[in-house]
Design goal:
By secondary structure, the chain is of the alpha/beta class. The chain is 31% helix and 22% strand. The longest helix is centred in the C-terminal third of the chain and has 23 residues. The site of flavin-adenine dinucleotide has 40 residues, from helix 1, strand 2, helix 2, strand 8 and strand 17.
Amino acid sequence: MNEGTQCDVVIVGGGMAGMIAANRAAQLDLRPLVLEQGADAKYPCNSRYTGGTFHICLREITLDEATLRQKILDSTAGFVKPELADVVAREGRRVIRWLQDEGMKFMRASASEYHKWVLAPPGRSRPGLDWEGRCGDVLLNTLERRLGERGGDLARGARARSLIMDGTRCVGVIAERNGKETSFHARAVFIADGGFQGDAALVGRYISRHPERLKQRGAGTGRGDGMKMASAVGAALVGMDRFYGHTLSSDALTNDNLWPYPYLDSLVTAGIVVDGAGRRFVDEGRGGVYVANAVARLDDPLSARVVFDAAIWEKAGRNGLIPPNPHLEREGATFHRAASLDALAAATRLPAEALRRTIAEYNDAVAAKRLQDGLTPPRQTARFEACPVATAPFFAVPMCAGITYTMGGISVNANAQVLRADGGSIEGLYALGAATGGLEGGPEVGYVGGLAKGGVTALVAAEHLAETIQRLRPKRG
Ligand SMILES: Cc1cc2nc3c(=O)[nH]c(=O)nc-3n(C[C@H](O)[C@H](O)[C@H](O)COP(=O)(O)OP(=O)(O)OC[C@H]3O[C@@H](n4cnc5c(N)ncnc54)[C@H](O)[C@@H]3O)c2cc1C
C-alpha cells in the first residue's frame, strides 16, 4: 500500500462484509483497498469469532423470497424498511453460492432448519471461544488470499478516522497508521467497521446506563468510527437502541468459559426473569435477544436473575448445541439450587416474599392460560411454551446481557448507499454489515442475521459501484 494511493474503492474494515465487498469489487474490475485497524495477521473481529450460521430470521436462507420477506417484516414489527427486507430475502441465497464459488464449504450442523447452512469446519460444541482454524477464521483467510490473487490490498494497522469529501461526494478516507495520518483517495468508500458495541460512551448513550456491566459477546472491535465519520458528513443514523446478543451468566464478565457459549436463552424462555426486587420486568416469551436488551436497560443490568425449576432444568436446560445444562455448573457459573423458594431467595439475595408472590402469580397465569391478559408484564407463548416454576429443587442464575453487535447504525438503501435524513443518498458512500441500521431492531428487537446482512450489503454495494462507474465511463466513439 502506498500512501496517498488512488484506488477505486477504500473499504473501512476487514471483517466478512468488507472482505466480500473487496473481492466482489475486484471481480468487477475495480481496484479495492481494505483498511483494517487490527495489526495482527489474525486480527480479531466478529466475523472471525462467528458461529457461522447463515440464516434469515432463524429460517433457512434459501427459502422462497416471499416467505423470507414476510418473516423479516413480521419479526421486526414493521420497523424494517421494506426495500431492505426485499434485498436480503432476494440476495441471501446468492451469498451462499458466491462463497461456495470462492471455495468455502458449508455443512448442516443439526436437524434444525436454522442450522442448514453453517460454515465448515464449525466451532466445536464446547463452552468459550473456539475460532482458530474454524468457520469465520477460514472464511477471512480464504477471502484475504482471494483478494491478493485478484490484485486487491488489505492494509493492517490502519484505523480510518474521517472521510474526505469533494463537495457532496465522498472521495476518500483519512486513516491513522503508525501514529501518522494518511489520506486514501478513491471513487467511493465502503464503511464496514462492524458497529459500535465496543465503544462504552456510545453504548452508554444509546443502549445502557452501565455499559461496563454488559459483556462484550464478541471481539468488541466495532467502536463506532464508521457511524461517526458518516454522520459528520450528513448521514442519518437509525435504530440505535437495539443490539443482537444473548443472555449470559453474570460470571461471563470474568470467566472466559462462559461466553459466547453457553447462553441462558433456553432457561430464560422457559422460566422467568426477575430484577433485584424479585419482580418480572420483561416478556420472556419474546426470546433471548429481546430479554438481553431489556436486561441491558435495567437501572442495574447486573441485578437480573433467571429463576426456574427442576423440570425446566432437565428439559429446556438441555436444548441447544452447547446447552446451559450441564455446562453452566461445569464451568463454574454462580448457580443457586434450593429445596424451597424461601431458601432460593436467601441464597440469591432476593426478597423472599416478593419472589414467592411473583412465582405464585406467574404459575396461576400459566394454569389459567391467561398469560396475555392476566399477567404483568404479559408473556407470549407463540414461540416458547410457558412452564410453571413448581417442581423442587428451584434454581436461580445471576445474569448479564451479552452484546454481540449493535443492530442500529448508518441508514442505507437497498444498494447499501448511505442516506441523509432527507432520504437522499451521499454520493460515493456506502455502509455494509453491522455498520448499517434499518434492517434489524425495532420494538420487537427483530434479529435478521449478521452474516446474511453482511453478505448481502457487501455484494450489492460492490455491484452498484461497478455499475455506476461503468455508466459514467466515457463511451469510445
Ligand atoms: C460469537 C459470535 C457468534 C455469531 N454467530 C452468528 C451466526 O451464527 N450467524 C449470524 O448470522 N451471525 C452471527 N454472528 C454475527 C456475525 O458474525 C457478524 O454480524 C458479522 O460477522 C459482522 O461482520 P462485519 O464485517 O460487519 O463486522 P466485523 O466482523 O466486526 O468486522 C469489522 C472490522 O472492521 C474493523 N474496524 C473497526 N473500526 C475500524 C476503523 N476505524 N478503521 C479500520 N478498521 C476498522 C474491525 O477491526 C473489524 O475487523 C456472531 C457473532 C459472534 C461474535
